[in-house]
Amino acid sequence: MAAAEPPPPPTPTPPAPTALPESGPVGNPIFARIRIANPSDVPHLHKLMYQLAVFERLAHMFSATESSLSSTLFNSPPFQSVTVFLLEVSPTPFTDAPAGAHPPITQVVVNLDLPIADPETQKFGSGGDAVVAGFALFFPNYSTFLAKPGFYIEDLFVRDCYRRKGFGKILLSAVAAQAVKMGYGRVEWCVLDWNVNAIKFYEEMGAEVLQEWRICRLTGDALQAYGK
Fold first, then answer.
1. Residue from 50, 142, 162, 202 carrying the catalytic annotation
2. Is residue 50 annotated as a catalytic residue, yes or no?
3. CA distance 208 to 188
4. What angle do CA 135, 191, 157 make, to 5 degrees?
5. What is the pLDDT of residues 46-79, one digit of tens each?
């Protein structure tokens, strides 16, 4: 009769898992900040605006240049005329803002389940690990019904890889918070009727989509005819 095999050695007890700290970011934290754009941001703004035109299927109407943006965007103090909020994101905490930049309007940490793969990091890099991810361009208008000024948002755009992660909400909230801070009566903007995702997002933000209003526009030859 064959001898019995010796019993297998005992299985080592696996080490206890290391507990995550009770405080601090978990998952895949992305640091985000909103700051007021300045002339040095024009190259990024121009690229963002072109991407917006492509997204809206209106690239054939896009004629802005870096030169024309530089000469028209920064002629008044912020909030008195056209103002641009720039959204920057970084996988690491921000250091100082770019030279000559305004102090950040807001800074937050967004915790994501998965990291973001940004194929345009080099194109939109803005110093250190920071990249430009979106913008909101707005300016004052006035409501005779309320007898109060407000803000009209001409453009609100987040680059494709950063969408549906809360960054659009951060941008829109920053504009709305500025309106409240200044005692303004409302914030308005337009949305394309086919952009159902945006419409749903705006409604979830508390906005009322006014079905009975239409945009009227004079531009190009139709406008120039009045100068003759």
1. 202
2. no
3. 10
4. 15
5. 999 999 999 999 999 999 999 999 999 999 999 9
